[in-house]
Specification:
Elements: H1 2-28, E1 35-39, H2 46-62, E2 66-70, H3 77-84, E3 92-96, H4 98-107, E4 118-134, H5 142-154, E5 159-163, H6 169-181, E6 185-189, H7 193-202, E7 207-211, H8 214-221, E8 225-230, E9 257-265, H9 270-284, H10 287-295, E10 298-299, H11 306-326
Parallel strand pairs: 1-2, 1-3, 5-6, 5-7
Antiparallel strand pairs: 3-9, 4-7, 4-8, 4-9, 4-10
C-alpha cells in the first residue's frame, strides 16, 4: 500500500511536471493567431504600399495571416497609442518611422508617450525625399522655387507647404528650409501623404517634401505635378532623371532621407521579438518583396542583427531630436 501510494504520487508529479512543460511550451508559441500590422496613415500612400508589399511574405514566414490596418491621424500618434494600449504579445505590430515615434511627441503636447516606449524589431526601407510642387507653379528647379517664394513673401503671399501632420519629419523639413533660406512659408498639415498629394495635384498647396514613390514619376510625366529634385547628395540610378538637391545653389546641403521599421512595445517578451525579427528579416530577403520595393525606388537597408537594432534606433532618436532642437520645435 505504501509502495502504491509512492507510485501514485510519483505519477502525479510526472503529470504535473508534464502539464507545466506543456503550458510553458504553449506560452512560448508565437504567433497563435493572426497578426495585425498597423499603418499610421490612410490607404493610398507610401506607408500603405510598403505594408501591402511585405504582408503576404511576412504571413508565410510567421505562419499566420498578417492583416494590414490603416489608422491615420495625430501625425501617426493615434495608431502608435493603440499599440501601447494593446497586450504586449506581438500580435499587433506598428509600422513606423521617426515621424510618429520621435518627432510627434516633441510637437504635440497631447502625446504622452516617448520613443523609448517602443522597441524597433527591424528596419524595412529607406525612402528618398522628393521635392514636389504643384503643376502650375512658375518654377522648374529648386533655386527657382526659392526665388519665387521670396518674391511672394514680399507681396504678402507666402507659399504653402504640405506635411503629414504637425511635428512630422516633413513639417520639420519645411520649417528647416524656411529657416536656412530666410524665406517665410506657411505649413498646411494633413492626415497622411495621400490627402496631401491630392491637394498638391488640385493646386490647393504649393509644395510637398514627400517620401518618393514611382507614382510621382508618373504624375510628373502626366503634367499633374512637378518633381524638382531629390534630397540626395548625388543622383541615384533609379531616379537619375531628377536632379539631386546638391545640384542647387541655395540648398546644396539640404540632403535628407527617412527610414521605416517595425515596432513592438518595449516590454514584449524576448522570444516574441526574436520570432518577429527572424520573420521580418526573411521577408526582406524575399526576392519578390525586394523587387517590388526597389521598383518603387525604396532603398532596402542591410538587415541588422537584433543586437544592433536597438543601437540604430537610439542613434536615430538622437539625430531627429537634434533637428527638432535646431528649429526650436515646441509642443503645441
Amino acid at each position: 500500500m505504501h509502495r502504491t501510494k509512492r507510485t501514485t504520487l510519483r505519477s502525479i508529479g510526472i503529470l504535473v511536471a508534464g502539464l507545466a512543460l506543456s503550458i510553458t511550451a504553449f506560452a512560448q508559441q508565437f504567433p497563435v493567431k493572426p497578426v495585425t500590422l498597423l499603418v499610421p496613415y490612410p490607404a493610398g500612400g507610401l506607408s500603405d504600399f510598403i505594408a501591402r508589399t511585405v504582408n503576404t511574405s511576412l504571413s508565410k514566414n510567421l505562419g499566420q495571416p498578417v492583416i494590414v490596418e490603416n489608422v491615420g491621424g495625430g501625425s501617426g500618434s493615434i495608431a502608435a497609442q493603440r499599440l501601447l494600449n494593446s497586450p504586449s504579445d506581438g500580435h499587433l505590430i506598428f509600422q513606423g518611422s521617426p515621424n510618429e515615434l520621435i518627432l510627434a511627441p516633441l510637437a504635440n503636447a497631447a502625446i504622452k508617450f516617448k520613443s523609448e516606449d517602443f522597441r524597433l524589431v527591424q528596419m524595412i526601407s529607406t525612402a528618398h525625399i522628393a521635392f514636389l510642387v504643384r503643376k502650375d507653379l512658375p518654377v522648374n528647379d529648386v533655386d527657382g522655387f526659392i526665388a519665387y517664394a521670396r518674391k511672394m513673401a514680399k507681396e504678402g503671399k507666402s507659399v504653402t507647404y504640405a506635411s503629414v501632420g504637425p511635428g512630422s519629419f516633413y513639417h520639420l523639413l519645411g520649417e528647416h528650409m524656411s529657416k536656412v533660406t530666410d524665406t517665410p512659408m506657411v505649413h498646411v498639415p494633413y492626415r497622411g501623404a495621400a490627402p496631401a498629394e491630392q491637394d498638391l495635384i488640385s493646386g490647393n498647396v504649393d509644395m510637398f517634401l514627400a517620401p518618393y514613390g514611382k507614382k510621382y514619376d508618373s504624375l510628373h510625366k502626366q503634367g499633374k505635378l512637378k518633381v524638382l529634385a531629390m534630397l540626395n547628395h548625388e543622383r541615384i540610378e533609379s531616379v537619375k532623371e531628377y536632379p539631386a538637391i546638391s545640384e542647387s545653389k541655395v540648398l546644396k546641403d539640404f540632403t535628407f532621407n527617412i527610414w521605416t521599421g517595425y515596432f513592438v512595445k518595449t516590454d514584449t517578451p524576448e522570444h516574441v521579438v526574436r520570432a518577429l525579427h527572424k520573420a521580418i528579416t526573411e521577408t526582406l530577403n524575399d526576392p519578390v518583396v525586394r523587387s517590388s520595393m526597389e521598383s518603387n525606388s525604396q532603398l532596402m537597408p542591410q538587415s541588422l542583427p537584433l543586437s544592433a537594432v536597438g543601437k540604430a534606433y537610439a542613434e536615430g532618436t538622437a539625430q531627429f531630436r537634434a533637428i527638432a532642437k535646431s528649429i526650436n520645435l515646441q509642443p503645441q
